[in-house]
């Protein structure tokens, strides 16, 4: 049987599309120099509107600025439908203005939250096609609009937020459902250059490069929601791990175990955040950490200097030598359940240069009554490979890739 050249090309196009879908979705990650926020780039709708959303591990869904958004493929999600039940919408919402994306009648309501402005806005759920460069489009992608006046706090040029929490309408879950992929994703936040957000699992080349350094620990569920709006009985959608203690230069801090556990009210524990710039610790953890680190640094002939807010423990940069993994300072270990299992934080992640002469311990005091005792911030995640496997409920992590002469931009 003879095949035309066009038939063969069409068949190849189908194979390429299937291969792209099978491999999931890979998005670039960049760091904004001014705010230290991490963002990606996608396109949305029939006119392929450029979207630059901030990456938020804790956000339940994505929201984008829709003030001037026009798309013939956009559809609002009607209230009192199965899809509205899936997204968690309660009741109906309507709009008095001209009907458009983000303004429709009898629509499933969305509680869109800007974590930088700390504002919760009543918005509309809708869906449209999401595009990533040279990859399979994601049809009927569910998101919420957000008005431009509620964009305060986002990095310059950012016009949305992409949610990666443990929900049915997070980016990774929607992609996994549509392309029949396992519900897992990985992030590698770059200190410079390009990082990577991979949905459906990292590439085989990435795994082969760093497989020997990967460790795994269970992802645990906080039984009480930490979202800005939730119903009684809802568990948290954010990512918690079971840190048992913290070591500085091999010595365990003297801290009550209760601060590291989650109580019946959902208070305490350790979660991972891409929105918090620096790891925030309960005051009763932060103080002994700062004291122990300063003492261990002094033993290394590192000179203390005046503090620079928001940091409390600062040092003369001239007294700190350099290594491939950043400043040569005492190591900090987050001790996890298991046989000698820990997440080691090296100098590039534990320190921050606040000016030419001063380098500070990049942890902040979270106060005496925080909802979560330890919030691992984005600075501590830079150049660390993290895979969130929701199938096995595990976090796989590498610690600093710089130790291996690798980086997120080279994976």
Automatic annotation (TrEMBL):
InterPro entries noted in UniProt: Aspartic_peptidase_A1, PEPTIDASE_A1, Peptidase_aspartic_dom_sf, TAXi_C, TAXi_N
Peptidase A1 domain mapped to chain residues: 38-398
Coarse class of the protein's main subcellular location: secreted
Signal peptide positions (record): 1-21
Transmembrane segments: none
Gene Ontology process terms (BP): proteolysis
Annotated GO CC locations: extracellular region
PANTHER family attached to this UniProt entry: ASPARTYL PROTEASE-RELATED, BASIC 7S GLOBULIN-LIKE
Family classification: Belongs to the peptidase A1 family.
Annotated protein name in UniProt: Basic 7S globulin 2-like
Name of the gene: LOC105171586
């Amino acid at each position: 049987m003879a095949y035309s050249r066009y038939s063969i090309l069409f068949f190849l196009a189908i194979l390429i599309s299937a291969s792209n879908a099978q491999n999931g979705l890979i998005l670039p990650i960049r760091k904004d120099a001014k705010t230290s926020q991490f963002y990606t780039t996608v396109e949305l709708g029939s006119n392929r509107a450029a979207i630059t959303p901030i990456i938020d591990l804790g956000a339940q869904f994505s929201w984008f600025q829709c003030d001037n958004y026009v798309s013939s493929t956009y559809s609002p999600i009607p209230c009192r439908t199965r899809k509205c039940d899936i997204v968690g919408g309660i009741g109906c919402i309507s709009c008095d203005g001209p009907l458009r994306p983000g303004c429709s009648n009898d629509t499933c309501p969305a509680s869109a939250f800007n974590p930088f402005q700390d504002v919760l806005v009543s918005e509309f759920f809708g869906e449209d096609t999401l595009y990533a460069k040279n990859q399979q489009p994601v049809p009927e992608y569910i998101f919420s609009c957000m008005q431009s006046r509620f964009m305060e706090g986002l990095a310059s040029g950012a016009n949305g937020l992409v949610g990666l929490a443990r929900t049915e309408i997070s980016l990774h879950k929607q992609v996994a459902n549509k392309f029949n992929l396992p519900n897992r994703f990985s992030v590698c936040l770059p200190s410079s250059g390009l990082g990577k957000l991979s949905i459906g699992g990292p590439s085989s080349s990435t795994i082969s490069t760093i497989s020997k350094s990967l460790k795994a620990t269970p992802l645990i569920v906080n039984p009480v929601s930490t979202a800005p709006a939730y119903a009684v009985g809802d568990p948290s959608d954010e990512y918690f791990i079971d840190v048992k203690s913290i070591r500085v230069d091999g010595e365990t801090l003297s801290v009550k175990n209760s601060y590291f556990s989650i109580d019946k009210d959902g208070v305490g524990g350790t979660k991972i955040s891409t929105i918090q710039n620096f790891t925030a610790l309960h005051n009763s953890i932060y103080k002994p950490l700062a004291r122990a680190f300063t003492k261990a640094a002094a033993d290394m002939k590192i000179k203390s200097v005046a503090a620079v807010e928001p940091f409390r423990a600062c040092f003369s940069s001239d007294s700190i030598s350099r290594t491939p993994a950043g400043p040569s300072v005492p190591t900090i270990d987050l001790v996890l359940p298991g046989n000698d299992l820990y997440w080691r934080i090296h100098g590039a992640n534990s320190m921050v240069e606040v000016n030419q002469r001063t380098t500070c311990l990049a942890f902040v005091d979270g106060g005496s009554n925080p909802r979560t005792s330890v919030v691992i911030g984005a600075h501590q995640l830079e150049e660390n490979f993290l895979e969130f496997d929701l199938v096995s409920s595990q976090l796989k992590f590498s610690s600093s890739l710089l130790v291996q002469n690798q980086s997120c931009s080279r994976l």
